[in-house]
Amino acid sequence: MKELAFTIEPDKNGGYVAKSRLENGTIITQGDTFEELKAMIADAIDGYYFDNPAEKPQSIQLKY
């Protein structure tokens, strides 16, 4: 996978929520600030189970 896109939405309680739909699931994470959200996205990708390490995205696209 070359690129993974996340849709960013404001959270009703403040902060941001990021979602990315994959063939075999969805990655969802949140952060109180945009900087924290970016760190949480990186952490979520690292923790997501990819069958093959080559499937791990090489770039991330954020759509607000």
UniProtKB/TrEMBL annotation:
Organism domain of life: Bacteria
InterPro entries membership: TTHA1013/TTHA0281-like
The protein's name: 2-oxoisovalerate dehydrogenase E1 subunit beta
Source species of the chain: Nibrella saemangeumensis
